[in-house]
């Protein structure tokens, strides 16, 4: 039995696609979800002796399930760029983990394949917001500037589709999106012929247009905090919206609040782009917070702690402010 497990964002989809173009497994069971659903190996409880490929989800977050699958004689290929912690020592585990902030899973797969399907690696890298690495990987392909711009748009659209609270928020389930790319060895052909791209492109522009009308709910010299309504369009666009706001004001920290169904807030935080630090420090000060130094979040912030959040936001990012 073959099982392919992949993060439901651009990087996860492109990494798997590159691998399967080189080594097709048409009967593989596919396991994926929205971008934030990273505990994917839990879904394989009880599976024995399968050939499993895992892409673009943190090993550390899946450690327990991974070890029990390895003990149950599964052969596992694990490729990722998130924090892994110690890699379990098993003969039947092949791990290629590189947490360098300038790389992503698609680029690691590209290296493993000797550049065999690297146009898709470029798409995955753009999707993960690694523009410099993406342009670098694109150089070897000698593409025109307009073709590279197309790969960038594709990466961003695939990435955009991965956000959302659950798959029902999304235009396409990540599984369907992956199935849609399978027939296309060349992403530029996919861009031209796929019937799903126009829907994704229109959805993206509509969502961004709605989001653009929202002003900050709090604005200081330290940063800006926005709130978007608890609706599917806002959940879909949250990641791209945060990136865009951060690019608008690279010297400021940014926060985005969205209500959860239980009344608490889901919070996402971006450190200032010119000083990508401390977003995790801020979020870890709250029970359900976590993340990386540049981008972090809190899963459910009780509304009565909102003022404490604002204060801590300004303390943490104020302390370290780069004066201009
Ligand atoms: Mn990734």
Tell me about this structure:
This protein is of the alpha/beta class. It folds into two domains: 2-203, inorganic pyrophosphatase (n-terminal core), CATH 3.90.1640; 215-319, Diaminopimelate Epimerase, Chain A, domain 1. The chain is 42% helix and 17% strand. The protein contains twelve helices and eleven strands. It has a six-stranded mixed beta sheet, sandwiched between helices. It has a five-stranded parallel beta sheet with strand order 2-1-3-4-5. A hairpin with a 5-residue loop joins strand 8 (253-259) and strand 9 (265-270). The longest helix has 18 residues, at 145-162. The protein binds manganese (II) ion. Residues 11, 56, 81, 104-105, 128 line the site of manganese (II) ion.
Give a count of the beta strands, DSSP E runs of length 2 or more: 11
What profile does the largest beta sheet have?
6 strands, mixed
Report the C-alpha radius of gyration, rounded: 20 Å
CATH topology-level fold name of the largest domain: inorganic pyrophosphatase (n-terminal core)
- Small-molecule binders: manganese (II) ion
Structural class: alpha/beta
Percentage of residues in strands:
15-25%
**Can you write the helix and strand succession as a string?**
EHEEHEEHHHHHHHEEHEEHEEH
Query: How many individual domains?
Result: 2
CATH class of the largest domain: Alpha Beta
Distance between the termini: 58 Å
- Architecture per CATH nomenclature, i.e. the level-2 architecture of the largest domain: Alpha-Beta Complex
**Strand line-up of the largest beta sheet:** 6-7-8-9-11-10
What is the helix tally? Answer: 12
Q: Into which percent range does the helicity of residues fall?
A: 40-55%
């Amino acid at each position: 039995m073959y099982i392919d497990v992949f993060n439901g964002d651009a990087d996860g989809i492109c990494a798997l696609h590159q691998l399967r173009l080189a080594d097709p497994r048409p009967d593989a069971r596919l396991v994926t979800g929205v971008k934030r659903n990273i505990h994917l190996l839990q879904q394989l409880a009880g599976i024995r002796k399968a050939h499993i490929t895992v892409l673009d989800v943190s090993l550390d977050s899946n450690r327990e399930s991974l070890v029990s699958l390895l003990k149950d004689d599964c052969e596992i290929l694990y490729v990722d760029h998130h924090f892994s912690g110690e890699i379990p020592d098993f003969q039947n585990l092949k791990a290629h983990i590189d947490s360098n902030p300038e790389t992503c899973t698609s680029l690691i797969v590209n290296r493993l394949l000797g550049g065999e399907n690297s146009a898709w690696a470029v798409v995955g890298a753009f999707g993960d917001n690694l523009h410099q690495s993406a342009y670098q990987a694109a150089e070897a392909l000698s593409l025109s500037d307009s073709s590279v711009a197309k790969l960038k748009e594709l990466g961003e659209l695939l990435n955009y589709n991965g956000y959302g609270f659950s798959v029902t928020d999304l235009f396409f389930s990540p599984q369907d999106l992956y199935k849609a790319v399978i027939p296309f060895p060349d992403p530029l052909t996919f861009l031209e012929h796929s019937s799903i791209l126009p829907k994704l492109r229109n959805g993206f522009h509509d969502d961004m247009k709605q989001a653009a009308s929202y002003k900050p709910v709090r604005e200081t010299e330290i940063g800006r905090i926005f709130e978007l309504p608890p609706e599917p369009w806002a959940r879909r666009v949250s990641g791209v919206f945060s990136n865009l706001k951060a690019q608008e004001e690279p010297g400021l920290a940014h926060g985005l609040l969205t209500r959860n169904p239980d009344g608490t807030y889901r919070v996402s935080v971006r450190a200032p782009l010119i000083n990508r630090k401390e977003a995790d420090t801020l979020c870890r000060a709250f029970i359900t917070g976590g993340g990386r130094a540049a981008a972090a979040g809190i899963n459910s912030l009780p509304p009565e702690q909102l003022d404490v959040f604002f204060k801590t936001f300004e303390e943490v990012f104020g302390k370290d402010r780069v004066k201009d």
